[in-house]
Amino acid sequence: MSHTRAMTLLLVDDSKVARLSLMRQLKALPLELEILQAASADEAQVLMQERQADAALIDFNMPGRDGIELATEFCHTHPTMKMALVTANIQDALIQRAQDLGMTFLGKPTRPDDLARFIEGVE
Question: For the chain, which domains are there?
């Protein structure tokens, strides 16, 4: 059975340029998406107190708490939300930390086919 509503996707990245780039790639996909944006872990946390997202694309390097810290919190507060760490910081230890949290790892710059695979894996 297919979704009868748009999937809600949360983008968390302190870089407006990075968020705009992701938005452009996501809007080009043949999917119905509602996209929420946050510029920090704190902003994302507040937003998720009011909303529910099916999935999140989370940057690693952000002022304050990093993406792994935010994802750890979301594992407890939003356990069904699928998450991907989206970062140019491509190190084996970081990839492992993301995988230990059940996150998908997407390197920057992102590719539309990788984004589509992640989103299609969200039930």
Answer: 7-120 (3.40.50.2300)
